Amino acid sequence: MFPFRYDTAGDEAAALAAAADGARYLAGGTTLIDLMRQTVERPDRVVDINALPYDDIDLSPARLRVGALVRMTALASDAGVREQFPVIAQALELSASAQLRNMASIGGNLLQRPRCLYFRDVGAACNRRNPGSGCAAIGGRNRTHAILGTSTACVATHPSDLAVALTALDASIVTRDADGERTIPIADFFRLPGDTPDRENNLGAAALITAIEVPVRPDTRRSGYLKVRDRQSYEFALTSAAVAMDLSGGVIRSARVAVGGVGTVPWRLPAVEARLAGRKPGPQLWVDAAAVAADGAKPLSENGFKVELVKRAVQRQLATVAGLA
After folding, report:
1. Quick one: the chain helix, strand, coil %, rounded to 5?
2. Nearest to 190 by CA among 201, 175, 205, 174
3. In a domain, 308, yes or no
4. I need a labelling partner for 239 at 20 to 30 A (CA). Which of 19, 148, 173, 296 fits?
5. What's the number of domains the chain is made of?
6. What is the CA radius of gyration of the chain?
7. Is 64 within 8 Å of 169 (Cβ atoms)?
8. Coil, strand or helix: which one is 166?
9. Domain holding 247: CATH number?
10. Alpha carbons 239 and 247: distance in angstroms, whole number
11. Which InterPro entries match (predicted)?
């Protein structure tokens, strides 16, 4: 560890002022403190924002609004969320450990840094940690890395399960900075690595996430999350699939599909969705739709198995969600 200054923000204005001076926000601390211990991140000042009023869960007929400081456990256990958005509850319950879920905030979950072992090794080349230094994972140990959305600068996967569910549901991120409030569709929030992998999202440097908003639609109740990993507890996804489906009159009216563990950002699958819309559900349809789940994949030396794995995960989760009563 290293010396740093710790402050608390009593209100939003104080938090924004501190961040403008270079302070890092601290909510649950389950990511930041971990990285500080590893000296991957070395902020001179940390400001605790837990006193800010971002801890409500508000479900109306039109939308779900979740404060950024709501804990993962609280959101997963909310009765309204479990009924209207089971994919969100399931994604949260399959994340981390119970102890971490009790501490980790919803806003912090979306801002997790990559789980790449080279990112967390300060002696290794990593363009996210040290721009221009290279990407050791491309020619190194890359079994858990991305096959979609990669670049010559970075191949790290996005770690959040919740972000995959929210991507399937067309959620929005509500932020605030000195210029006021802004709402960013989740599809525009996370950035592909390109040549600037150190810029992971479109949140301003001194901005706060204040809330997440998710529209209520006919397909949100029939939804679910599948996570495929090396072990059943406290492990990140090799691949995952979030599916929401509007199925009525024996026909799929609409479907929303996103996958995790395979992309540098939560990865939406519009080609899969297009194959489902207006069709009658059935085993062959799941196979046909899932066949395009890995289109555009660029596997590395150790993770070619993910191409078939993501197809099978999508196929299985389509069948599971379609079969819900």
Report:
1. 30, 25, 50
2. 201
3. yes
4. 173
5. 2
6. 19
7. no
8. helix
9. 3.30.390.50
10. 25
11. CO_DH_flav_C, CO_DH_flav_C_dom_sf, Diverse_Substr_Oxidored, FAD-bd_PCMH, FAD-bd_PCMH-like_sf, FAD-bd_PCMH_sub1, FAD-bd_PCMH_sub2, Mopterin_DH_FAD-bd
pLDDT of 325 above 60: no
Of the CA atoms within 13 Å of residue 4, those in its CB half-sphere come to: 22
**pLDDT, tens digit, 9 for 90 and up, residues 143-152:** 999 999 999 9
Is pTM beyond 0.90 here? yes
Using an 8 Å Cβ cutoff, are 257 and 242 in contact? Answer: yes
Final residue in a domain of this structure, among 31, 48, 65: 48
Distance, in Å, from the CA atom of 144 to the CA atom of 238, rounded to the nearest integer, reads 6
Q: Which distant-in-sequence residues (6+ apart) come within 8 Å of 84 by Cβ? A: 59, 64, 216, 220, 221
Mapping DSSP to helix (H, G, I), strand (E, B) and coil, where does residue 190 land? strand
Please count the other Cβ atoms lying within 10 Å of the Cβ belonging to residue 201. Answer: 16
Q: What is the pLDDT of residues 21-37, one digit of tens each?
A: 889 999 999 999 999 99
Residue 302: exposure state from Cβ atoms within 10 A (0-12, 13-18, ≥19): middle
| 262: its two tokens | 């395979």
Look at strands 24-26 and 45-48 and give their pairing: parallel
Q: Among residues 154, 149, 119, 117, which one has the least CA distance to residue 135?
A: 154
Query: Once rounded to an integer, what is the mean pLDDT over residues 118-129?
Result: 97
| Amino acid identity for residue 302 in this structure | E
Please tell me the predicted confidence (pLDDT) of residue 2.
82
Domain with 19, as residue range(s), is 5-48
Alpha-carbon distance of 257 to 43, in angstroms, equals 37
Using pLDDT thresholds of 50, 70 and 90, give the confidence band for residue 66: very high
Q: Is residue 9 part of a domain?
A: yes
- The kind and range of the H/E element at 275 are helix 270-276
Q: Is 33 a member of any domain?
A: yes
| Mean pLDDT score of the chain | 96
Residue 279 falls inside a structural domain: yes
**Amino acid making up residue 197:** P
